[in-house]
Amino acid sequence: DIQLTQSPSFLSASVGDRVTMTCRASQGISLYLAWYQQKPGKAPKLLISAASTLQGGVPSRFSGSGSGTEFTLTISSLQPEDFASYYCQQLQSYPPTFGGGTKVEIK
Amino acid sequence: QVQLVQSGTEVKESGASVKLSCKTSGYIFTTYSVHWVRQAPGQGLEWMGLISPSDGSRSNAQNLQGRVTLTRDLSSTTVYMELSSLRSEDTAMYFCARDFGNYIFDNWGQGTLVTVSS
User: Fold this and answer.
1) Which in A77, B16, B77, B102 has the greatest CB count within 10 A?
2) Cβ B109–A43 below 8 Å, yes or no?
3) What is the distance between the terminal CA atoms of chain A, rounded to a whole angstrom?
């Protein structure tokens, strides 16, 4: 199975900050990566697919980049509603696997 | 609009089985696979398995082999997940999710909390 390692596990930031988190794959997955946002007690929400394709309705302050084994999710200006956990998921091969998550907390 | 609505909270004893439902609507049921993902308290997301409603074909995570049974009912456009021989580490929130293609989960159920008591 392809392993995904997210860093950092926890991130403390303020409203308006630029935030970046990383997802590393144990083998190359081209652009086959998705990002999800999850708030406490809620289901994950798809933000980005194909490493950088923003889903409809997702604010443009979210962006994804990377290919192969290293990927990045950036929030250009953190908003109060962005405090949540973020998970990457590889779409390259069966079984689909998730990273351990990055929790964005209020500083 | 696309909706996946899951059944309610379950409390089970160790060794028992639980069967969860995921009622879908707003799209052609047989077009997209449905996956199950679980999340233990304070932990990350764990993929469990998938079912293709068109032909009923399914596949489960290796570590759950033999304990998970996925089924579907075409008439009610509902997918079911049964987990047997429950143990305390199965305590988790269980989600169903629609696979838009290439394992992209674009719509999710609200989750079902399963608590296993010993």
Assistant:
1) B77
2) yes
3) 36
Cα distances from B98 to residues A19, A73, A85, B23, B53, in angstroms, run 29, 23, 21, 11, 11
Q: What is the pLDDT of residue A106?
A: 87
Nearest of B81, B75, B78 to residue B93 by alpha carbon: B81
Q: Cβ of B109 and A46 within 8 Å? A: no
Average model confidence (pLDDT) across chain A: 97
Share of chain B above pLDDT 70, in %: 100
Strands (E), chain B: 3-6, 10-13, 18-25, 34-39, 46-51, 58-60, 68-73, 78-83, 92-101, 104-108, 112-117
Taking contacts as CB-CB distances below 8 angstroms, the residues of chain A near B103 are 89, 91, 94, 96
Token pair 């303020």 is found at A14
User: What pLDDT, on a 0 to 100 scale, did the predictor assign at position B118?
Assistant: 82
